[in-house]
Amino acid sequence: MATWLMMNFQDPNSFSSLFLIWLHDYNMMILIITVLLIMYFIFLFFFNKFSSRNLLHGNLLEITWTILPMLVLYDMALPSLKILYFTENINLFYYSIKTIGHQWYWSYEFNYKGKSFSFDSYMISNNELFFNEYRLLDVDNRLILPVNVPIRNIISSMDVIHSWAMPSLGIKVDAIPGRLNQISIFPLRSGIFYGQCSEICGMNHSFMPIVLEITKYKWFKNWLYFMMN
User: Fold this and answer.
1) Which end of the chain is more exposed for a tag (fewer CB within 10 A), N or C?
2) Residue 6 within a domain
3) Number of alpha carbons in the 13 Å side-chain half-sphere of residue 26
4) Domain count, the chain
5) pLDDT tens digits for 15-31?
6) Do 215 and 189 form a contact (C-beta atoms < 8 A)?
7) How far is Cα 18 from Cα 87, in angstroms, rounded to an integer?
């Protein structure tokens, strides 16, 4: 999870977050090179190293500063589209959960072997926190998911627009009333991971956190059996 004065991304816990961090670093490298190159030419112009008459006119110059940005943008857009397609593509999943946003809490519904159950997830107030729980981040009912198992998450809302965001998984999906959005979840390691609503949804927008408890498959099955019986 994020800590104070943390300047980088959270440790990735899915292939999507790994690809997104790589894309950020790759595009940042291109942007830094572009900015340094522009500053270099500005420096040369400032000290009259080039003649403005020779650089501001000419077919070769016009072609160069038209084609070169196009190639740079293409080089940045192509991996971005591939990662977007990978993130949106849902082919195989073992479990399907439904996430509903409310003002101001989340509710989850499981359907498994013809049976279903649901539960609400509220933020724990300050006077009920234990010493090892995080203020404004912990909830009374965590969403339990198995590690290394593909899961489909269907997201919607009952009232206003919310956004189900989990930075460590590289996920941010809008919860829109009357619309079903879906995303694939494939956790790579176990642990407890925190997220929050990322859409300003009203007065208590900052008080509807998300907590995922990623655990081993056999423990997830025990929890699933307990919740259905």
Assistant:
1) C
2) no
3) 15
4) 2
5) 888 999 999 999 999 99
6) no
7) 11
